């Protein structure tokens, strides 16, 4: 995903600071009265995330049309002689607007500068629109309560920034940019990752804001300072073809693939393609990796060799390997991969990495589909955490559009989960490449990176954290506890990359960098057997999150088989342990956490209700019942239906529970989208004051029926 330029649309609240395009701006003026004083110098420098783009600067002197007071000249060093013959504000306004474009403006006490610019524009009759902004003075006060002074000099001292050219517009802009860059790790420590969250952090500096209001640095409307940024303009996004976000490769592929031997003559291969109405065949190459032969390969051979091409062996023209994607891949991701690799045919693989089908796309469909993509294959080309963060920032808008298009909340959550798995996979690829460059070599053994919990089930919402693990081949003889071990360095870097990209570290430590979640296959199976033999309350959270695992990235086909073996054998162990399943099902019998006395919905002090807690019995009960009945499905609704069929629970009850699950997910998703747009960190707590009366009634009824999950879980 390319960085925004000055011509791009303004950033939304979900835009990550790590990848935010900003213009750091400062002005020098004839005085401090924003209504009557004039601008005499404008300085600005562009930044991308925390990177200062030193070559992209604006530095102009402006003729104010009035005499500069000597007291002001002593501060910034500019006199009437310096501004004589320089352009006035009207003549520089267009270049300033072009330089800022749709970027967020950052400054120190930036509302002084914006107020000066606003009043100059009015004075000269030129258009001006206030940009979205961040003030490092306001943020510094919020980051460091009790800060002696939020002056630029004090902040530069605090963050170790040297100021060159103090009280020149460009000098102060550069110093402000350096302070803003140095602040970003502190912002991350505070959990501030997005533009909206940074804006809200600044709003908490109420005393300093009040002082700025008193001197007229804010536009006023009905006596109140205008301090509300523009919300995400979802309607400005590209159109979405929701079919691409509903269907997976397994829904549209042709399979099994048609194969020929490596020695098959081209004439025979061409005849087979014509008979079957296909544009490619898979060429089997014995124990070697299979390849692909396409109609274009045959046409090229005919053009180059003429009639003799008919006897050429298929293996001589085969492309190896077959570029492929798992059968569960959503079409929008497959199309993004095909666009990036310029493919007409895409292999489709099964659970163990075996080729199970071929997906083809005609040019008309291809062009139509690519035009409708909102998120394509940007993750696969990301080389840095901030590029992954840009994709994360698109998810709230994508989710909002898909919901408004009528897509079921579970399907939207599946798309979000697919992106989270893709991010984990790309983090692994980046970490592998970094270790190779560092001289550590490639993977010393086969492995699979697993995502756990909601990402593994395909039910991710918009309040992410990391739940991941590694399963490593048993033939690895390294020390998985040693700090310099390849897999220790690898998993630690994966978690670092994801955290920087906007998927925070798991508060419960369920991450591959921690030894408990980094094991050889046999170690994992021993652990599962221990869980089965001795179910206990303290390990139950780990058990629950583990059994929702899905592979995100594998080192090879052997790595894929590791994940599949772990799935099969762990499920068999759980299926054979009634005690474990019963222990997992215990939570479903507890009182519904969202209901109080007399069936009233519980609210906290802010009027919100934790609907994840309400949903937990359904998710837990479905998981326990699925393991008891040997159901391998991961999505909750599928587990409910398959376990119900195996356990003799009515279809009506199963459908009701699945519908309740989807309804709760929709309410949470809608709230999270609204919170992200408002710069509030998303959670699973829903403000019932924003829920329609009809949905509140449905919610009350739904919460009263969650206990039906016990009927499903009792079979365990």
UniProtKB/TrEMBL annotation:
Occurrences of domain CBS (ranges): 253-308, 317-378
Reaction it catalyzes: DNA(n) + a 2'-deoxyribonucleoside 5'-triphosphate = DNA(n+1) + diphosphate
Molecular function terms, GO-annotated: DNA-directed DNA polymerase activity
SMART domains membership: CBS (SM00116), EXOIII (SM00479)
Pfam families attached to this UniProt entry: CBS, DUF294, DUF294_C, RNase_T
PROSITE patterns: CBS
CDD domains: DEDDh, NT_GlnE_GlnD_like
SUPFAM superfamilies recorded: CBS-domain pair, Ribonuclease H-like
UniProt KW Nucleotidyltransferase keyword: yes
Keywords of the record: CBS domain, Nucleotidyltransferase, Transferase
The keyword Nucleotidyltransferase belongs to this UniProt entry's keyword annotation: yes
Superkingdom: Bacteria
Record-listed E.C. numbers: 2.7.7.7
Purpose: DNA polymerase III is a complex, multichain enzyme responsible for most of the replicative synthesis in bacteria. The epsilon subunit contain the editing function and is a proofreading 3'-5' exonuclease.
Protein name: DNA-directed DNA polymerase
Organism of origin: Pseudorhizobium tarimense
């Amino acid at each position: 995903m390319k960085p925004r330029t000055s011509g791009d649309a303004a950033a939304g609240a979900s835009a990550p600071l790590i990848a935010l395009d900003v213009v750091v701006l400062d002005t020098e003026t004839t005085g401090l009265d924003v209504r009557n004083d004039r601008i005499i110098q404008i300085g600005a420098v562009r930044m991308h995330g925390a990177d200062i783009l030193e070559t992209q600067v604006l530095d102009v002197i402006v003729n104010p049309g009035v005499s500069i007071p000597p007291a002001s000249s002593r501060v910034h060093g500019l006199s009437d002689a310096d501004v004589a013959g320089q352009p006035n504000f009207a003549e520089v306004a267009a270049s300033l607007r072009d330089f800022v474009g749709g970027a967020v403006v950052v400054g120190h006490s930036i509302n002084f500068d914006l107020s000066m610019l606003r009043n100059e524009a009015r004075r000269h009759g030129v258009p001006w629109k206030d940009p979205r902004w961040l003030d490092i003075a306001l943020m510094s006060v919020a980051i460091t309560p009790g800060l002696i002074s939020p002056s630029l000099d004090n902040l530069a001292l605090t963050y170790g920034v040297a100021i060159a050219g103090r009280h020149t517009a460009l000098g102060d802009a550069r110093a402000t940019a350096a302070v803003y860059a140095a602040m970003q790790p502190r912002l991350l420590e505070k959990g501030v990752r997005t533009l909206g969250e940074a804006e809200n952090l600044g709003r908490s500096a109420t005393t300093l804001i009040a002082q700025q209001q008193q001197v007229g640095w804010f536009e006023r409307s009905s006596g109140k300072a205008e301090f509300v940024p523009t919300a995400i303009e979802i309607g400005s996004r590209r159109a979405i073809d929701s079919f691409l976000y509903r269907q997976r490769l397994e829904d549209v592929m042709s399979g099994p693939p048609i194969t020929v031997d490596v020695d098959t003559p081209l004439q025979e291969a061409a005849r087979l393609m014509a008979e079957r109405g296909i544009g490619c065949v898979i060429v089997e190459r014995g124990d070697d990796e299979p390849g692909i032969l396409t109609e274009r390969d045959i046409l090229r051979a005919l053009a180059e060799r003429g009639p003799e091409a008919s006897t050429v062996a298929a293996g001589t023209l085969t492309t190896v390997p077959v570029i492929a994607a798992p059968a569960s891949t959503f079409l929008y991701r497959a199309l993004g991969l095909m666009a990036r690799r310029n493919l007409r045919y895409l292999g489709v693989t099964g659970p163990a990495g075996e080729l199970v089908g071929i997906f083809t796309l005609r040019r008309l469909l291809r062009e139509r589909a690519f035009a409708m993509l909102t998120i394509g294959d940007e993750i696969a080309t990301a080389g840095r955490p901030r590029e992954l963060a840009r994709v994360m920032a698109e998810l709230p808008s994508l989710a909002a559009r898909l919901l408004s298009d009528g897509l079921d909340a579970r399907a939207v959550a599946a798309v979000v989960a697919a992106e989270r798995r893709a991010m984990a996979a790309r983090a692994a690829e980046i970490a592998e490449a970094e270790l190779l460059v560092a001289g550590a070599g490639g993977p010393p053994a086969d492995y699979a990176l697993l995502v756990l919990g909601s990402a593994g089930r395909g039910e991710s919402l918009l309040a992410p954290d990391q739940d991941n693990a590694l399963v490593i081949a048993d033939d690895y003889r390294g020390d998985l506890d040693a700090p310099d071990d390849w897999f220790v360095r690898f998993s630690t870097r994966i978690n670092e990359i994801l955290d920087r990209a906007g998927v925070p570290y798991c508060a419960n430590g369920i991450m591959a960098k921690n030894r408990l979640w980094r094991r050889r296959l046999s170690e994992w199976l021993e652990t599962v057997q221990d869980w089965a033999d001795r179910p206990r309350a303290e390990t139950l959270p780990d058990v629950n999150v583990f059994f929702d695992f899905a592979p995100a990235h594998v080192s090879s086909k052997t790595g894929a088989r590791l994940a599949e073996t772990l799935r099969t054998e762990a499920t068999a162990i759980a299926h054979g342990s009634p005690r474990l399943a019963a222990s997992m099902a215990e939570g479903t019998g507890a009182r519904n956490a969202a209901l109080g006395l007399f069936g009233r919905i519980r609210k906290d002090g802010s009027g919100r209700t934790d609907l994840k807690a309400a949903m937990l019995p359904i998710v837990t009960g479905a998981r326990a019942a699925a393991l008891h009945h040997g159901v391998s499905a991961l999505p909750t609704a599928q587990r409910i239906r398959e376990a119900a069929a195996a356990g003799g629970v009515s279809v009506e009850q199963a459908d009701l529970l699945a519908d309740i699950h989807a309804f709760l997910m929709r309410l949470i998703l809608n709230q999270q989208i609204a919170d992200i747009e408002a710069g509030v960190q998303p959670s699973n707590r829903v403000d019932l004051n924003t829920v329609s009366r009809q949905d509140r009634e449905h919610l009350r009824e739904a919460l009263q029926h969650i206990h039906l999950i016990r009927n499903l879980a009792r079979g365990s």
